[in-house]
Design a protein that fits this description.
Blueprint (H helix, E strand, L loop, with lengths): L1 H19 E8 L9 E3 L6 H10 L4 H4 L11 E7 L4 H4 L7 H13 L2 E9 L6 H13 L7 E5 L10 E3 L2 H14 L6 E6 L15 H15 L3 E7 L10 H10 L2 H7 L5 H32 L13
Parallel strand pairs: 2-4, 3-7, 3-8, 5-6, 5-7
Antiparallel strand pairs: 1-4, 1-8
Helix pairs in contact: 2-6, 5-8, 7-8
């Protein structure tokens, strides 16, 4: 029974952790930071720990930090933040796009160097892309040492004068332009977030995440750039909730005139329902009082008859 209880506890903990964590994959076809070709880190880590592991164990400190240089430089470090995968989806889920899993699996296995992080905790206050970029800056100490930083308009990154990429056409043009202008030994950083992208073939129809990632990687390979890629999922940011400043601005702009114009009026049916509801609530309160009084009276042990006093 004790062993069964331990197994059930571990199973429940694994289910809870997989439900609240996301996977991350790091790979590079032509760059290897150490002798290990493939490695998997099963511990639960924060986005900051993920960034530190990518810099130290993944070798990105040689790419992003200003004081380090590579003997065989990588032209492009690309970060793709998806919106679909949870940690539990990696082991198998019928509701997940199999093309996305096959694409990540193929990129992971065919590369010279690859790392997997199945359990990365997400933050409810900041986006994954902002946490990663800020952690890269903090770990490097003197800011990012890359020659150019660009990110898609669907990303939410605070601070910095970064170049914004609107769609896949602009991403392709940016990669080709940087290959022509980049000097030898420099590395660019591109951060892409799924959302707002459209296919290069059909601009009026948005494509799933697998197609977007496939076209991005195809554009990178066609440009001839040596690259290292990091994929991390952040499905909890797929629904955007307004922050405190947005709500404060909305409340400040809302006037009593607009409120009175958009307010709903309670008609006769509404008034009838409210009156019936009030009557039901009052009846329930009176019934509770009656039941309480009867219980109190039944609990009093008083005789039904009293004997007459005897005269001495």
């Amino acid at each position: 029974m004790f062993v069964v209880a331990i197994m059930v506890g571990f199973f429940a903990a694994a289910q809870i952790s997989s439900a609240s964590t996301v996977p991350a994959f790091l790979w590079s076809p032509g760059f290897s930071s150490n002798e290990l070709k493939e490695s998997v880190h099963y511990q639960i880590m924060s986005p900051k720990d993920l960034a530190n592991s990518v810099l130290s164990q993944g070798g990105w400190s040689d790419l992003l930090c200003s004081k380090r240089k590579l003997e065989r430089p990588v032209d492009l470090a690309i970060v793709f933040v998806g919106r679909e995968l949870h940690s539990s989806d990696v082991v198998g889920n019928k509701h997940v796009d199999p093309a996305l899993l096959n694409l990540l699996k193929g990129s992971f296995t065919r590369s010279n160097f690859s790392m997997a992080f199945p359990y990365v905790a997400t933050s409810e206050e900041e986006t994954m892309e902002n946490l990663l970029v800020s952690s890269f800056k903090e770990a490097c100490g003197h800011g990012l040492g890359v020659s150019n930083v660009a990110f898609s308009e669907s990303c939410s990154i605070e601070g910095g004068d970064f170049q914004k990429l609107a769609n896949l056409h602009s991403i392709n043009d940016h990669l080709v332009s940087r290959m022509e202008k980049r000097t030898k030994g420099e590395t660019d950083l591109v951060v892409l977030c799924h959302g707002g992208f459209q296919s290069l073939k059909e601009l009026d129809q948005p494509f799933p995440e697998s197609e977007i990632l496939k076209e991005v990687m195809s554009s990178v390979e066609q440009s001839g750039a040596k690259y290292a890629a990091l994929y991390v999922s952040d499905p909890f940011k797929s629904i955007h909730y307004p922050g405190y400043k947005e709500l404060e601005r909305f409340l400040a702009e809302d006037t009593p005139k607009n409120a009175s114009a958009t307010a709903q009026v309670c008609d006769e049916v509404c008034k009838l329902k409210s009156s019936l509801l009030e009557g039901v609530l009052v009846g329930i309160v009176l019934l509770l009082i009656l039941v309480s009084g009867l219980c109190c009276m039944m609990g009093i042990d008083t005789p039904t008859r009293f004997e007459a006093p005897q005269d001495n």
